[in-house]
Please model this.
Amino acid sequence: MTAALTPFLALVRKDLIQFLSDRRALVISLALPIVIAAFFGSLFGGGTKTSAIEVALVQQDTSEIGQRIAAGLKADPNLHIVSMAMAEAENAVRKGTQKVAIVLPAGFGEAAGAALFGNREKPSIPLLYDPSQPAVLGMVKGMLTQQVMSVVSAEMFGGKMGQELTERSLRQLDEQAKTDPDSRALRDMLASVQKYQALPAKDNAGGAAAGPSKGLSMPFTTADKQLSSGIAEQGYNAYAHSFAGMGVQFILFMGIDMGIGILLARRSGVWNRLLAAPVSLTQVLLARAASGAIIAFSLLCIVFAVAVAVFGVHIASLPGFIGMALCFGVLTASLGLVIAAFGKTPEAARKIAMFAVLVMVMLGGAWLPSFLFPDWMQQLTVAVPTRWAVDGLDAVTWRGMDALAVLPAMGVQLGFALVFGLLAVWKFKREQR
Amino acid sequence: MSPVLLSVNNLVKTYGTRRAVDGVSFRVLAGQTVGLLGPNGAGKSTTVGMLCGFLTPDSGEIFLGGERIAPGAAAVKRKIGVVPQDLALYEDLSALENLRLFGALYGLRGKLLAERIEKVLGQVNLLDRARDKPATYSGGMKRRLNIAAALMHDPELLILDEPTVGVDPQSRNAIFDTLEALQAQGKALIYTSHYMEEVERLADHIVIIDHGKVLADESPASLHSRLAAQAALRVELAEPAHASLLDGLRGQRGVTSLIADGGALDIGLAQAADALPVMGWLQQAGCRPLHFATARTSLEDIFLSLTGRTLRD
Model:
């Protein structure tokens, strides 16, 4: 250690001691981002496994078809079906404890079967839903349609009720054929169905969920592959994004405190004492920036260590993460210097800086992922440094990218830090003149 | 005569259209204590800022031991210790940590740093509170630690900017004891204040500043001799003094000035011995003095005569 470094290291050491001895700052900078990130992470899906949708089922149709539909819904891993009486279901949806309630009305199975081949009126399934959950309603409708089509068609092609309905329909069509020659074609088709019904059944148990049957089934399946570069078993982790967003937000708050600390030092006369010593203004500012960057880097590492250990967040590229954390640390420190340089009083500067940081983290996608933004906003927020910080951290965690892929994000953050730092030095030197 | 330690030549500092310091020049000899006197806003703190190197003068020069002081002049800054007007300490760090920091800023480290910390804490009588934070100190203890921080690098010149503001009399005496010990060690001091009695006690040379200009730059004895009045007599009469009485009083031997406010008379005297004949004349003139007092003229009177206003204006 050379003598020239002694003042610089002493200033950095002083800042670190001050930060560590301030328990309030430690709590705000560490505990809050972890708690809030955990909350947001769980809100947006938590880990890779999606939770089943809570659905109430009011089963008024006690027919075989109705029971098979209910069994199929209960077997769907995307749904968690709870059987309820009508009044109970209405109350639960009204209170919001159930998002959707499916009401299978009495006689639904028979009516649906008749409507499939005849020109009978189609029965209706009432769906009660929480107005705040329209997206869930759509999902439940889709899964219900699949179940009903599968079970009703299976019954119609191979079930006892289907045979009875086919015979009844054929008799009616024979009568109609006397006056309506066009109904002959439909009669021929139903006659073929009747022959098909006479074939030995392969499996009639369990409805649609019980493997191949005589009924209609979806003519395709989907091969779901997550569009990230991460390892397949990891995939998207909502906690990863939440910890990135909340880490960025609260560490920037620490940066504000750092800037306010300089303003308080200037007010108290400590700043003048520092400048009266044989150290240059640039050295004092650099030392402050170094300590701020070290603190910000350490905080981000600790926050993510908790995310990895407790919430299963996967860091795909450790060098990439360290690079991102270092660059973000430098960005945070330079933000603190700008606040100190341009702030008039600590009180006013804190309010303005808090507002600015909240806008920055909001536009940076710290609260909601930026891919949810409208296109124009996604393009606009490229000019916000926090967008690069959050996207970069997302990239080296759940997106599974390597350090090379986040070099642009690191570069942009360092660019912003350089601009902030130069502005701060210019302003401080201007005031010294 | 001691050699010149600090030479301040025609300093000018302007803020907007206001000239805070307007051609200030003075010298400080080695081992000398210079009192820098002036009311609030006179330009003292701006002058101190330039002396300490954290403000750049618009024009003019400052030399310490032949080296020019400027914001980047590290070598010359090592010879100056600064005690700012405000408590320039980190209250959330212990006294030890504060001194460690301020010593390190001047390049001290290791054993030398530890020795200096022990020495300055001893000088200001805070050895037993070294590990406590200044936040737990009394006002006087904080002021002493403020001085200790400036002494860490053993400077040749100590600049104290109103170091006793808000200090109780006991702590003020403790601070004076410390400063007098430094004087005895041959340290040069610049002591700014608007407390005349402090400057009179410590300074062997006085620079009076007002509106950014130097009004006087001489020893206390020389300043006293500039006043026609060497003593003051204050008399309170039972009745208001009429014009003929005041005219007669002005003509008395030894009376150098007279200010009347109803029955209250402030009479300047060439010497204290002139007070008795003046009191005798007043009685012969039929006046009934209710109360009277004499006093030696002070720097306050000198400042009043130079600027037309008091130091605390």
Q: What stands out?
A: The radius of gyration of chain B is 23 Å. Chain B has a mean pLDDT of 87. Residues 13 and 57 of chain B are 5 Å apart (CA to CA).
